[in-house]
Design a protein that fits this description.
3 domains; six-stranded parallel beta sheet; alpha/beta; Rossmann fold; about 500 residues; 18 helices; binds cobalamin; Transcription Regulator spoIIAA; binds iron/sulfur cluster
């Protein structure tokens, strides 16, 4: 009889049912009238772990964000994977299975950063990449000789040349808005709040382009519909020549994609042009702060100069790109003026989708080490580590002031008046530069609007701290709704035409 393995990715434990987090897309699901549970992006660890398990095991995969866990499932081994935010729930699941004498192995970003904590809920903790560790863990499991810790040292990190294609089909793909792939690992930068360098190492490692294309083809087959792919690289502009090669290879696939990248791309027209042609329409950019002092303190890459921010943003946007700008609040040099300063910067520069975070001391980072030494960590109750709650004592204000300032700022940038200001300015720039075909631009206008509604719903699910003028809000909400209706009907018109007369492009395929 085959040994049975269950792989689980837990959902986070909800600490306030009325409160939403933007990265889950709960509002999008409700707005679309979707009854089934739906989550933003596919969890990548699950299809990777599945691909590493030999055929003589029987494998069940559960992502708790989209389906319930059957706690009575017959299984010999449980593999758990989660980031910090889901650790509270992850440990509860581990404890329940261990009570039934199931062997539990915990891996993933959180366990890799906090192995001594994770081992109190598991038989084994995997510290680092499954591609190196899982084969050895399974071999030892078969022999009944599992060790407590398996670790990937820096010099043992796998090259990405020969990794198996993740088994996307093990997921309930219809339950996600976007599929996710990863084409590189590692980061040499030293931003002190970030986990990436510690988790993935300080050297960039890249998947060969052919491998990426093979993965996308496999993903397209599994998804069975045209899809918007999240390339979750931490800086897709890290090696611009390699990225240009990747973009050239993506053009024939006719996909739309988003990724994360540094502002270095603004200096390179060829890069921006190829990115646009290959379907790159949204870019997450970590601005973090609009204070020169704070950027220095957090050790942000010195190439990201505040003085260049405005021109760079405009340049990237002029290519028809929607910038998803990440900003963090609570650095030691951030005063009370940081809230309005950041909000005004976001609004004035037409940031399509601002992502605001309270600085959070995730385990394993340089920031956390420093705050621990200074006795400034308030709680290690991981369920609160969502990025929207304050978990440490700031230097220049009280935790309550930081918390309320965070709520104020996110509600200010997502007031209807300011959504209108940001999007209207951005769309005007897109129309003036006309660098993308109309069907793509219309789709992107609709999506940025709906995503703003999603982010707004989350911002206003937090305690109210921003007093918008209600008449003005009603006025701008109406304007946005009118535009949405106009875009939707234009899109329907183009879909019905099927082939765009000007370009011969099949519009329905976009
Ligand atoms: C895509 C992404 C998301 C997506 C995730 C989609 C999904 N369904 O998983 C979304 C947008 C939803 C998201 C949300 C959040 N994210 Co995020 N996200 C990422 C990103 C960019 C890629 C993650 C990824 O999929 N990597 C690829 C997979 C394969 O890596 P992995 O899970 O670590 O697995 C590898 C190993 O850990 C190991 N492994 C994993 N599990 C197991 C199990 C076993 C048994 C074994 C042997 C090995 C093993 O093998 C795998 C392959 O090598 C990372 C940055 C990064 N480069 O990692 C940030 C990152 C994970 N996110 C982070 C954060 C903070 C968040 C949020 C709190 C939002 C915020 N404030 O930023 C939420 C929390 C969500 C949650 N429920 O936990 C932090 C996590 C810090 C931490 N300690 O948890 C990261 C590291 C970013 C950063 N700069 O620090 N995120
Ligand atoms: S924030 Fe981005 S650039 Fe900075 S260390 Fe993390 S991944 Fe690298």
């Amino acid at each position: 009889m085959k040994n049975k393995i269950t792989i689980i990715s837990p959902k986070r434990e909800i600490f306030d049912p009325g409160r939403m987090e933007f990265w889950e897309f709960g509002f999008m699901a409700k707005a679309a009238g979707i009854q089934q549970r739906k989550y933003s992006g596919t969890p990548m660890a699950l299809p990777i772990l599945h691909s590493l398990i030999p055929d003589d095991f029987e494998v069940t995969v559960i992502d708790e964000n989209v389906e319930d866990i059957d706690f009575t499932i017959e299984t010999d081994l449980l593999l758990l994977t989660f980031f910090t935010t889901a650790a509270t729930r992850g440990y509860a699941i581990a404890d329940t299975f261990r009570e039934r004498n199931v062997t539990v192995v915990i891996g993933g970003c959180h366990a890799s950063m906090a192995p001594d904590e994770a081992i109190t809920h598991a038989d084994t903790v995997a510290i680092g990449e499954a591609e190196v560790l899982l084969p050895k863990i399974l071999e030892d499991f078969r022999k009944g000789k599992l060790e407590k810790f398996y670790r990937v040292n820096d010099d043992e990190r796998p090259a990405l040349d020969n990794l198996p294609i993740p088994h996307f089909n093990c997921l309930k793909l219809n339950s996600y808005f976007n599929p996710t792939i990863q084409t590189m690992r590692g980061c040499p930068m030293k931003c002190d709040f970030c986990t990436v360098r510690v988790h993935w190492g300080s050297k960039y490692r890249y998947k060969p382009i052919e491998k990426v294309i093979e993965e996308i083809e496999s993903l397209k087959k599994s998804f069975g519909r045209n899809t918007f792919i999240m390339i979750s690289d931490d800086d897709i502009a890290a090696n611009r020549n390699r990225s240009k090669e990747l973009f050239r290879a993506l053009i024939p696939l006719q996909i739309q994609w988003m990724s994360q990248g540094s502002m270095a791309m603004a200096k390179d027209d060829e890069y921006l042009d190829l990115m646009t042609q290959s379907g790159g329409t949204r870019m997450i950019m970590g601005f973090e702060s609009v204070s020169e002092e704070s950027l220095r303190l957090m050790k942000k890459n010195p190439a990201n100069k505040l003085s260049d921010y405005i021109a760079n943003i405009r340049k990237i946007q002029s290519y028809g790109v929607a910038i998803i700008g990440a900003f963090v609040f609570g650095f030691d040099t951030d005063g009370m003026d940081s809230f309005d300063n950041s909000a005004d910067f976001i609004i004035d520069n037409c940031i399509a989708l601002p992502q605001l975070f309270a600085l959070t001391p995730f385990p394993g980072t340089a920031l956390t080490k420093r705050l621990e030494e200074e006795g400034r960590i308030l709680s290690r109750d991981w369920k609160f580590y969502t990025g929207s709650t304050v978990q440490f004592i700031p230097k220049t204000m009280t935790p309550e002031q930081l918390q309320n300032g965070y709520y104020y700022t996110i509600q200010k940038v997502y007031s209807y008046k300011n959504i209108w200001k940001r999007l209207n300015g951005l769309w005007r720039l897109w129309d003036e530069n006309a660098r993308r075909r109309e069907p793509v631009i219309i789709k992107e206008k609709i999506d940025t609007l709906l995503l703003n509604e999603n982010f707004r719903a989350c911002a206003y699910s937090y305690p109210l701290n921003y007093n918008a003028d209600s008449n003005e809000e009603a006025h701008y909400r109406k304007k946005l709704n009118t535009l949405l209706r106009r875009f939707l009907s234009r899109r329907t018109e183009m879909m019905n035409a099927v082939v765009d007369n000007n370009t011969g492009v099949n519009v329905a395929a976009i």
